[in-house]
Amino acid sequence: MKKLLRIIVLFSFTISISQELSITDQGNKWGYLSEDPLCDPTDPYNGDCIQFFLDIYRINGETEINGIAYKIMERASAINPTWTFSTFIREEEGVVYTYSEANGEMILYNFNLEVGDFLDVGYGGDCFYDDNGNGYADVIDVSTQFIAGQNRKVITFDVQNEQWIEGIGSNVSFFSHFQVYCDFGETISCFNNGEEEIFSFFEINGECSELLNIPEVSKVTTSLTPNPITEQSTVTINNFQSNTTISFYNILGQFITQKEITNSTMNINRTDFPSSGIYFYQITQNNVIIDTQKFMVK
Fold first, then answer.
1. Which end of the chain has the smaller Cβ count within 10 Å, N or C?
2. Which of 13-17, 103-107, 150-154, 246-250 has maximum average pLDDT?
3. Gyration radius (Cα) of the chain, Å
């Protein structure tokens, strides 16, 4: 009997018990090529549109939410080559989960699927097609292939040539499985595990090499000392500019407060926070997020 498995796809916002090749390994980086087929650079009325660009994702750091360890996924792109927070993610026994305050924990991938299993992907209309016409994504093949220096399990579906690659993810889109967009599509371009050479599925104008090598530390760096905050701590910005703000969030991503920073250092008081625990601060300069850091309050 077939097993019905529901996958919930997220569009926004982990030590884990996992298989040997894990999506959530520290240092993993992905490049997904996005294409807007409605963009025509020769159109005099829409010539400034962007037809192709890369979205870059990476695993960078970890945190704990409700007693569960998650890795932190960050995002950059050719349009904004600065790492910013994307989502919390973890993998356990071949199942990949994401977490958001709004939806809680949801399944993103299940690498335990076998031929005969299928997913109720929950899409309809002209954006969704499957070869059997039954509204589900059926697993039609499971194989082992040598990809990016490793033998990896590859799960093939009957929808839009979708494949899930062990330790890497979807060949179509990391979050938006089965090409849910009518007028917009993504395809994996390259992958790097932080140790091997970049593996290119295909590459446009060398952007994979350029973007996957965005420096780990941005030009603007910040620090908070002492950490944890017990009475008062100081945030220091190494490359301060005007029009800079600092925003504080709790571990669930709920906004606490925002303050303007007027010079390279700023004092933070314990009384600014409602209770002890883990928090994040986010530094924004000229409406661009340039750094996000985790800290503790006691």
1. N
2. 150-154
3. 21
pTM: 0.64
Structure tokens at 140: 């039609």
Q: Where in the chain is the domain with CATH 2.60.40.10?
A: 222-297
**Distance of alpha carbon 73 from alpha carbon 171, whole angstroms:** 18
Contact 209, 243 (CB under 8 A): no
Contact (Cβ atoms closer than 8 angstroms) between residue 257 and residue 248: yes
Q: In whole angstroms, what is the distance from residue 25 CA to residue 22 CA? A: 6
State how far the Cα of 190 lies from the Cα of 171, in Å rounded to an integer: 10
Among residues 84, 96, 177, 90, which one has the least CA distance to residue 130? 177
CATH of domain 222-297: 2.60.40.10
How many angstroms separate the CA atoms of 87 and 100, rounded? 7
Beta bridge partners of 138: 118
The sheet with strand 244-250 has its strands ordered as 255-261, 244-250, 277-285, 288-297
Q: Is 151 helix (H, G, I), strand (E, B) or coil?
A: strand
Q: What is the largest CA-CA distance in the chain?
A: 65
Give tens-digit pLDDT for 182-236: 455 678 888 988 776 788 887 666 667 776 666 554 455 678 888 889 999 888 8
